[in-house]
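Q: Biotin synthase, please. Structure only.
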Amino acid sequence: MTLRLEPNKMVSSPEWVRLSFGADMVLGFSPGKFLKGALNTTINLLQYYPDGCKANCAYCGQAREVAQGPECKTLIRVEWPLRRLDEVLKRIKEREGNPEYGLQRICVGQLAHPRASPDAIEITRRIREYGIELQISELVTATYTFKHHMVEMRKAGADMIDVAIDAASKRVFDQLRGKAVRSIHSWDRYLKAIDEAVEVFGRKNAGIHLIIGLGETEKEAVDIMLYAHSRGAKISLFAFYPEDGTFMENKRPVPLSVFRRMQIARWLIENDLVNESSFKFDEEGRLVDVEVPSDLTLDELAPAFMTSGCPGCNRPYSNERPGGRLKNIPWYPNNKQVISAIKASKLEGLIKRFVN
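A: Structure for Biotin synthase:
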């Protein structure tokens, strides 16, 4: 059932937003604690519209033909409760600066909707008007977000922006986000948006969201990471996990070994320790070896396995069920965890160097 404020006036962004379930817990709307004492350091907001998302991405619980309206069944596996923005901002302000919560960032996430960018700007403006000093990221859909919107987002108070390209190649993008699934997105528009974001926010203040496991080869994933880095964009890695009710609900989660290899590749690329020729692939496009600097240490490699993306965003348990093997580690890993991650990568060269 769609909520109403009064007759004929629908609940909608910017006055209402969804919260990730983790953020909902942090702000005291829902009960619960994070396993192993993890802190959820980012408040993830997501827009809400009575007519839902206009896109139809094959892996997403918000897809037009899956959700069939505004009700968000799940997104990255969890519920996103609907909350009034004013109450959300009040609770953020009450917790800001308290080490018990460790809040560092707010992420304003868009739906594919004609109002997405104007409302994201308005939400950002209201965050700053409330006196909240946390850093703010914009997570944008390039189909409805253009350079002039990005300029206004920055003026409103955002310090970072990510373009949610998700797919690693045009081949996969077109299959899962384009006309093949009756969706509205364009690979070329997303590539252009990366350059626009970097131009407006600056190098390394703009980035991409990339989901590993959608059907790309590892070479395709490495290629898009090399491309993004060459354009000045940072890289936020996510691990595919199937959502019930979506077109891809029966696809298996990305294997841990694949994700570990892509984490290593991302970290090496972003730290300018490799180039295209450093990566060796087999005939199926699987990464089998990577040349790394001879003086690279285990401690230096540790951050490769942490959650990547905007500073202050750790997204605990957004890629797997609590109690399972963590794909994105939401804290600084110890040596045992780093060695385990290297073993899981099945990259024999790194295993021989750091483990044996």
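A: Brief note, in case it's useful. Residues 6 and 12 are 12 Å apart (CA to CA).
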